[in-house]
Amino acid sequence: MKTMEIGKGVFFVMGKHKGKFPFSNSLIVKHKVMLDLGCGIETVKDLADKVEFAALTHTHPDHCSGAWVFNFKNKRVLSPKGYKTELESLANRFVNEKLKERWKNFVTNTMGIRDFNAECYSDGDLILKEPEIVAIHTPGHTADMHVFYIDGRIIFGSDIDLTAFGPWYGHEESCIKEFVKSIEKVMELDASIFVSEHEEPVFGRENVIERLQMYLDVFERRNEILIKLLDEPRSLNELVKLSPFYMKKPYEKEMLDYWESQMIEKHLELLIERGQVVKVDGKYVSL
Ligand SMILES: [Zn+2]
Questions:
Q1: Can you give the CATH number for the domain in which 72 is found?
Q2: Looking at residue 1, what is its pLDDT?
Q3: Of 199, 247, 203, 251, nearest to 222 (Cα)?
Q4: Cα(88) to centroid of ligand 1, in Å?
């Protein structure tokens, strides 16, 4: 397990496979709380004994797969208010009816997630008093996503993950406009350390802002890609086949196609609203 002290008593825990999906990085603060539990079941088992409780930024399996371990050890888990935490409810939110069983098998086999129980927190709640950890609601990626603002200087950024892929919003509940607002909200916080859950931490206020801006720019880049592709009329299915965002789908192609289709559709809605694309006879075309 690779750990790094990024602030006094604040330890970055690099997840399995360097925290790349289907795993994620965690933070441990003052041996009190572990933030997110997707770093790999074995690591969660080791670390659960070293903290008092855990808090989850959102209910994606790659961030909460180890929560059942905390249940098993009779330690509290905090999760966003209003969202159930058993697999069946998560499947209903994250895929369509046709893909449900497949998705449940995928997350169980690759991440080791099981049903778990959690207490809830809401936007603005204090996760910890000393040092202060505040939950800030940052929807867009999922409806329930929060970032944790630690001691007024460290952001645990969850899936504002700063990856080269860029923002991900492949669920029905995901929303580009909210995602943009959430990133802008995080940029306004006075943080000099940003912890992505799928990348290495970023140090220095200027670097943090620069990386967040690069990440934000991906939305417009994707709009431009679609506008170009729609020089000729194409249906949503045809666009998904061209895979303008994912480009390759090395596993679970059907599921990734479904998520990419959701992402493309959200851009198309936005471009229609802006008057840059129209829909004629079931096909989309640039104006
Ligand atoms: Zn996520």
A1: 3.60.15.10
A2: 83
A3: 247
A4: 17
